């Protein structure tokens, strides 16, 4: 016999659930997502709209509100330093006044832009810190197609202005969020196979020196070759005049290539006169470590269609890209999923035709991270082209042996650079840009030091180099075997800045290593 259903009670239960379920779901979302800085992006990025005026940094300066100190860190979150003052100059007079104050009060000057150098270059304890991001005027010179910019301008700002003139920059990193001043200090390279490092693209620059005097420096000046790649040790760069190129329209291509065939294909593409920009990503899951590549190349065209991506915001499908990247940090399954997404879904998200400016506007916010326990760090190794296959085999074995969580590996071609005194481009090389997930605790540092003890030995034996812009996990003798020119940098600094007004944690660390080795 079927019992009568109490519809009145059922209605009450339904209404209670109708109220409680959303409340409980909201509680979970708030607790697990909104209240967790590392997960907050899941909601924020659904409605976030980037402005071209935005200056993105993964390392904002924090006012401690204690004894008027400020915490300055970099994107690695491993180099926290307290400074006594943060100044945001908007004119060269502001910069000169801060330098003169430093000399008067016996303080050091430290300098930063977007703060994405990861080797201690951005700050020094108790210094007067110059945050250059408000110092960013830009002026295009139609007479010679050059552009004059203040050092706090980002490459994105420059791209926006140059695009109006149908022009583009020659050399910059594969993201446009960084400042020109920081790029000069690191002497960056890009993915245009025709050019070497940034030093080739500069007509002249101005710096405020240790006496508080602004001076113009050209490539004919000996100091020029120290400033490029000198990490701000010779003064505050105020202005720079850059060469530009036409804002070429490219056809965007992706080729999936096994590592055995990669070398020949990559070099052939780099020698193809139609290909101007080129890079590759390598598989990083344990079961397919460094065995497959996805080669991205941009061929110049005469395309006139209106269906051309000229966007320089770097916000293409950012929510999805960030989700896939986060998943790949956590497991091999996630890495395989990301590789599949890049090969099968990526081509449908990326435009078929893109301007030169648009091709260099990488979606950098993908890498935003607020994890309390782990961080992602960059390293870059420059390998002579003829040794690249040997390096890949050695590197795969070394990563596996040390159980390293490598999240990404990108390969770019770099040309020889003998102009900069401290140069990573000592021959024609392939740059392996590698991203690692490590613990913030000492275990992460120890793991990286162990890995780089082996990598350092290989680099010395095979005439390779590494990028000084990132955390130095190499042994002291390896550092100076690869970069003996650092001692020339220190000697020149002593002559040009005898009171060592311009200072950073990187400079102190490397100079101390040099002193220890010499005596």
Describe, in plain words, how this protein is organized in 3D.
- By secondary structure, this protein is α+β, with helices and mostly antiparallel strands.
- Helix content is 35%, strand content 22%.
- It has helices at 7-34, 41-47, 92-105, 155-163, 180-186, 224-227, 259-270, 318-330, 332-344, 346-349, 356-359, 388-401, 442-461, 476-482, 486-496, 505-518, and strands at residues 62-63, 70-72, 81-83, 85-87, 109-112, 128-131, 138-141, 146-150, 167-169, 202-208, 214-217, 236-242, 244-246, 249-258, 275-282, 292-300, 353-355, 374-384, 406-414, 429-439, 465-466.
- The strands form five sheets. The protein has an eight-stranded antiparallel β-sheet, with helices on both faces. Strands 7-8-12-10-11 form a five-stranded antiparallel β-sheet. It has a three-stranded antiparallel β-sheet with strand order 1-2-3, with no helix packed on it.
- The longest helix has 28 residues, at 7-34.
- The termini are far apart.
SSE layout and pairings?
Layout: H1 7-34, H2 41-47, E1 62-63, E2 70-72, E3 81-83, E4 85-87, H3 92-105, E5 109-112, E6 128-131, E7 138-141, E8 146-150, H4 155-163, E9 167-169, H5 180-186, E10 202-208, E11 214-217, H6 224-227, E12 236-242, E13 244-246, E14 249-258, H7 259-270, E15 275-282, E16 292-300, H8 318-330, H9 332-344, H10 346-349, E17 353-355, H11 356-359, E18 374-384, H12 388-401, E19 406-414, E20 429-439, H13 442-461, E21 465-466, H14 476-482, H15 486-496, H16 505-518
Parallel strand pairs: 4-6, 5-6
Antiparallel strand pairs: 1-2, 2-3, 7-8, 8-12, 9-13, 10-11, 10-12, 14-16, 14-17, 15-16, 15-19, 18-20, 18-21, 19-20
């Amino acid at each position: 016999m079927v019992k009568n259903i109490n519809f009145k009670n059922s209605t009450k239960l339904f209404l209670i659930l109708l109220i409680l379920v959303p409340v409980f779901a909201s509680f979970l979302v708030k607790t697990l997502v909104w209240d967790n800085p590392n997960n907050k992006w899941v909601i924020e990025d659904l409605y976030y709209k980037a402005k071209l005026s935005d200056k993105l940094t993964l390392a904002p300066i924090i006012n401690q509100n204690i004894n008027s100190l400020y915490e300055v860190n970099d994107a690695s979150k491993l180099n926290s330093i307290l400074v006594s003052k943060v100044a945001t100059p908007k004119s060269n007079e502001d910069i000169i006044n801060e330098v003169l104050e430093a000399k008067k009060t016996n303080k050091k000057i430290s300098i930063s832009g977007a703060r994405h150098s990861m080797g201690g270059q951005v700050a020094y304890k108790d210094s007067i810190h110059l945050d250059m991001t408000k110092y960013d005027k830009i002026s295009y010179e139609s007479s010679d197609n050059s552009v004059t910019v203040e050092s706090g301008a980002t490459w994105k700002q420059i791209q926006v202005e140059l695009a109006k003139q149908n022009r583009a920059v020659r050399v910059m990193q594969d993201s446009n969020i960084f400042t020109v001043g920081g790029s000069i200090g690191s002497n960056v390279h890009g993915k245009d196979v025709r050019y070497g490092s940034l030093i080739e693209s500069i007509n002249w620059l101005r710096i405020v020196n240790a006496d508080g005097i602004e001076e113009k420096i050209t490539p004919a000046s000996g100091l020029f070759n120290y400033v490029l790649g000198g990490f701000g040790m010779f003064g505050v760069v105020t202005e720079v005049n850059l060469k530009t190129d036409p804002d070429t329209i490219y056809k965007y291509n992706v080729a999936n290539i096994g590592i055995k065939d990669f070398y020949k294909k990559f070099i052939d593409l780099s020698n193809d006169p139609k290909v101007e920009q080129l890079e590759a990503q390598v598989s990083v899951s344990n079961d397919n470590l460094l065995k497959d590549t996805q080669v991205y190349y941009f061929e110049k065209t005469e395309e006139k269609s209106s269906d051309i991506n000229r966007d320089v915001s770097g916000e293409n499908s950012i929510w999805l890209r960030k989700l896939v990247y986060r998943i790949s940090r956590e497991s091999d399954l996630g890495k395989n999923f990301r590789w599949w997404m890049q090969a099968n879904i990526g081509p449908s998200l990326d435009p078929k035709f893109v301007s030169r400016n648009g091709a260099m506007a990488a979606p950098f916010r993908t890498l935003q991270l607020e994890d309390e326990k782990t961080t992602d760090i960059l390293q870059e190794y420059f390998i002579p082209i003829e040794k690249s296959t040997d390096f890949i085999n050695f590197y795969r074995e070394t990563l596996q042996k040390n159980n390293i969580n490598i999240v990404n590996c990108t390969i770019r071609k770099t040309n020889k650079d003998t102009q900069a005194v401290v140069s990573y481009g000592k021959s024609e090389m392939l740059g392996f840009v590698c991203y690692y997930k490590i613990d913030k605790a000492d275990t992460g540092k120890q793991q990286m030091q162990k890995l780089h003890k082996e990598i350092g030995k290989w680099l010395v034996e095979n005439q390779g180099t590494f990028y000084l812009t990132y955390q130095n996990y190499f042994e002291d003798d390896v550092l100076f075997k690869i970069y003996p020119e650092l001692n020339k940098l220190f000697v020149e600094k002593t002559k040009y800045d005898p009171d060592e007004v311009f200072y950073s944690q990187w400079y102190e660390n490397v100079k101390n290593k040099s002193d220890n080795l010499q005596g």
